[in-house]
Amino acid sequence: MDRFAYLLTEAQGLSREVLGGKGFGLVAMHRAGLPVPPAFILSTAACRRFLQEGEVPGLWEEVEAKVAALEGLTGKRFGRGEGGAPPLLVSVRSGAPVSMPGMMDTILNLGLSLEGVGALARATGNPRFAWDAFRRLLAMYGEVVLGERAEVFEERLSALKARRGVRTDAELSAEDLEELALGYLRHLEARGTPFPLDPWAQLRGAVEAVFRSWQNPRARTYRRIYGIPEDLGTAVVVQAMVFGNLGEDSGTGVGFTRNPATGEKGLYGEYLRNAQGEDVVAGVRTPEPLERLLDYAPGLYREIEAIAQLLERHFRDMQDFEFTVERGRLYLLQTRSGKRTAQAAVRIAVEMAEEGLITREEAVLRVEANALPGLLRPAVDRERAPKPFLQGLPASPGAAFGHAVFSNEAAERYAAQGLPAVLVRPETTPEDITGMYLAKGILTARGGLTSHAAVVARGLGVPAVVGAEALRVYPEEGRAVAEGVEIREGDLLTLDGGTGAVYLGAVPLVEAQGEALLAKLLAWAEPHRRLGVRANADTPLDASRARAFGAEGIGLCRTEHMFFAEERLPWVRRLILAATEEEEEAALSALFAFQKEDFKAILRAMDGLPVTVRLLDPPLHEFLPPWEELKAKAEAGDEEAQALLERAQALREQNPMLGFRGVRLLLLRPSILRMQLRALLEAAQELRQEGLDPRPEVMVPLVADPKEVERARALAEELFRVYGPIPFGTMIETPRAALLAGEIAPLVDFFSFGTNDLTQMAFGLSRDDAGKFLPRYVEEGLFPFDPTERLDEKGVGRLLRLAVEEGRRANPRLKVGLCGEHGGEARSVALVAPLLDYTSASPYRVLTARLAAAQAGLKEGVAAG
Ligand code: ADP
Ligand code: MG
Ligand code: MG
Q: What is the pTM assigned to this prediction?
């Protein structure tokens, strides 16, 4: 018989994949002798089976046997108070193999019925507590299992508080809570979804709802953002309840073994007295710092501190743990590797290696390479900034500037227009994930440093200020008020997630400070890196910035970017309009002068390192003013506009991406190719005369056939005969070029994979239009991820491998690089690291590429030295 249910004692040795992260952590803590309430775990296999077949054979018999075991361990009967003992109540908790905080649903106090409430009241001598537990169960069950909106319960609670003239839940009496609970019961009944008063029916309903919650939209969104596979399923933990809301000697909290924002070593956390667990995460009340315990329960603080150390030694990583204190007794409810900012990740990895807890190699592998650009986020310049108008808690570092928005929908609207937004909410819930993802910053009125808003913001790398208590937010009205100032949608805000300060309008920022710890980590990483790392840079500023980040050259310098500058566009337009050879000559020689100066500056910034210049790539009409503008001017009698309009008409293309551009344009208008290449060669020559060591390379875009390369090379050779040769290469960005790589390779010195276009052409989609369907494709599981962000291994990767193999076979001296957006994306870099000579990333992503390449080297076994 298949087994799906395991007591903590029975689950030893089972993997995280089977038990889920939460179950796995509970088993480990139990094993280490820590106080964990008795529990059993339903495996992820049960969930997968349930989602596929709608039932799991034998599961309920197993569950009955395990509940009986919990009864034995606790001396209580499930749902029934016997002999003056309180009834056994349980929590039904979801726990996937990969942490998805707050994304799935958990139900507490399960097993209560009307008699149960009476028994609980008698056993604890606290009827208020008993009714409070029941109304919480009804609201959670009503939402998660019966599908009622959470607001319905909240509104009734708020209405009751208003009638009683009180502000907090704590001021409501036992009778008030009884009235509230009975009202919930009647409401659910009237709605046609009655609450099951039978504990066993509750348990079954809850377990199945947790299974199903794997498929809920916010869980899917979370998996999409973090690239978590769809088919893992969640485990379910059924655990005896302990109560943090039994009075002032009870409470609930969250601890971190190191600070998740800064990485600083030492116990860090928050505690809420007389409260149940979900109150901390939900940000209903703002908790107090854990150190406050030192004032009134120092023994408890020391106990938590000792446990934190034990957990960290056991798991060899920073832990984020949940605990509850019931009448002075401490219980551990969860532990997991804590989410952390990029800054904290680097500090924790380096310090743990220095403490000898992990090796240097492990430290290198611990840091998520894609998160490094977050380290370089600017901060508010405190010297020059005005006084903040509002103060909250510093939840996720970095400065954010944008327009205030109050909903997902508004965040989407601003993002669609390319405008930065700051999401302002009373607190956040998993429903807000879209807005949080799109926003440049997050501001909440309530909640602590471990609230949903704070945890998710750190995970996403979005700056956040939470718990700004002076702020009142009215999302439905699209406004917020603080310190007598009203903020409406669209108003500009700046927030500093490193200090918790919030400013009206824009304030001066400072670039991130150089990170000594990061330098140390990279120094440990570098010896394992085999793949070269260059930068995509079009300006001298980008070039020197990239060099400071450790770029070993430029892999892609897009010359057309130099054409768009204000003083140059008129010359490009004259080139396009030229009717005679003299006119063309004049335009070209003006452009030649500009290009030569640009190339000199870039080669100078990259002195001694290779600089790959790509010849003109876009179609000419991209340099003309917008159609409507031309038309309006022409109609107003502007003669130049009239001429440009006619040219624009002639140049117009249905599919410019597949049109008259790249090598096609260069071959049919060779004067452009000659001008650009001569500018590059003369720039190098002049620098050499200054005693410098320029290393230019030239490459041709959009090639699809060896003949094109041959012709372009012949044109280049004419100039090489005058100035001396430089490496000549081609982009491989059409599928046909990849397929014919063996014929192209002997004609060139290097290939550079343009994976942006190669992806677009391999998939037959354009990045500019894919926004309409790609996100939904990923959401619905048609694509595992967005291939414009992360390199598609199966298709594009196959073209790439084939081209590398056949290219190298035909030309053993061939150098091979990659210069698409993927060149700075960690998982893509890992994929190509064993294949290529170098990758090329945008300047801020050079660090990511370096670390990702070293991590790949470590995994391949590239030895240090
Ligand atoms: P999440 O995955 O959202 O963290 P959890 O399953 O951890 O959900 O539960 C939500 C809250 O309820 C947490 O604060 C947790 O500590 C608390 N909780 C869960 N089970 C119990 C229990 N058996 N007794 C007391 N509190 C519990
Ligand atoms: Mg939890
Ligand atoms: Mg291209």
A: 0.79
Query: What CA–CA distance (Å, rounded) separates 535 from 611?
Result: 9
Residue appearing with tokens 């399960």:
110
What is the Cα–Cα distance from 225 to 338, expressed in whole angstroms? 18
Mean per-residue pLDDT, 300-311: 97
Marked catalytic residue, from 30, 403, 452, 822: 452
Name all residues whose Cβ lies below 6 A of ligand 1: 37, 91, 93, 101-102, 106, 108, 239-242, 277-278, 281, 322, 324, 333-334
Q: Where are the alpha helices (DSSP H) in 791-844?
A: 796-810, 826-832
Contact 254/320 with Cβ under 8 angstroms? yes
Q: What is the pLDDT of residue 416?
A: 87
pLDDT tens, position by position, 171-229: 899 999 999 999 999 999 999 999 999 999 999 999 999 999 898 887 887 787 777 88
List 47, 621, 819, 822, catalytic entry: 819
Over residues 126-144, mean pLDDT: 95
Q: Residue 799 has what pLDDT?
A: 98
Burial letters 469-507, b for 16+ CB under 10 A, else e: eebebeeeebbbebeeeebebebebbbbbbbbbbbbeeb
Q: What is the mean pLDDT of residues 419-437?
A: 90
pLDDT band, residue 513 (cuts 50/70/90): low
- Phi/psi for 277 (5° steps) reads -45, -45
The residue written with tokens 């704590």 in the block is: 170
The whole-chain average pLDDT of the chain stands at 92
Whether 47 is catalytic is no
Cβ burial of 674 (10 Å; 0-12, 13-18, 19+) is middle
The two three-digit tokens of residue 94, written as one number: 């979801």
Burial class (CB within 10 angstroms; exposed 0-12, middle 13-18, buried 19+) of 559: buried
CB–CB of 301/320 below 8 Å?
Answer: no
> Mean of the pLDDT values across residues 34-44?
97
Residue 37 Cα to ligand 1 midpoint, Å, equals 11
**Nearest to 726, CA basis, from 599, 548, 823:** 599
CB atoms within 10 A of CB 313: 11
How far is residue 710's CA from residue 822's CA, in Å, rounded to a whole number? 29
